[in-house]
């Protein structure tokens, strides 16, 4: 009886010793160096639906002519992309900033910036973006994009900027 028990224990120990994990075998055959498993590839570029995605892939600003608040064909192309993006990400709210160049009085430029922001808002809502998601603000000439007193600077400062809240 005692011999049978010893034989049974010996078979159990032998069976346990013969089982091994595949990783241990790999270590033994490569000298103990195991390559780390490849990490899943991270997507490159901005996260879809983020403010960065909006700026990089859609465009966040449109430009206006001197003393104008009507939309150019280039502006409507940008606003079409913005409207499509905003219809995809329906929980996003925006603020449209109206800006003017440095020429003119403060009061006049605040009013012009407001007309520019409303022009952008009206276009976006006409394209199907809910008006409740859109706010406007005018900065007039208070926040220039480019500092300078020349046409190149003024062109960049006459703008409407769509900001993701």
Automatic annotation (TrEMBL):
Keyword Signal part of the UniProt annotation: yes
Subunit structure and binding partners: The Tol-Pal system is composed of five core proteins: the inner membrane proteins TolA, TolQ and TolR, the periplasmic protein TolB and the outer membrane protein Pal. They form a network linking the inner and outer membranes and the peptidoglycan layer.
Protein's membrane topology: Lipid-anchor
Alphabetized UniProt keyword annotations: Cell cycle, Cell division, Cell outer membrane, Lipoprotein, Membrane, Palmitate, Signal
Gene: pal
Single biological process term from Gene Ontology: cell division
InterPro entries according to UniProt: Bact_OuterMem_StrucFunc, OMP_bac, OmpA-like, OMPA-like_CS, OmpA-like_sf, Pal, Pal_lipo_C
Major localization listed first in the record, in broad terms: membrane
Keyword Cell division: yes
Localisation: Cell outer membrane
Family: Belongs to the Pal lipoprotein family.
Identification of the protein by name: Peptidoglycan-associated lipoprotein
The organism's place on the tree of life at top rank: Bacteria
Protein task: Part of the Tol-Pal system, which plays a role in outer membrane invagination during cell division and is important for maintaining outer membrane integrity.
Gene Ontology CC terms: cell outer membrane
HAMAP family: Pal
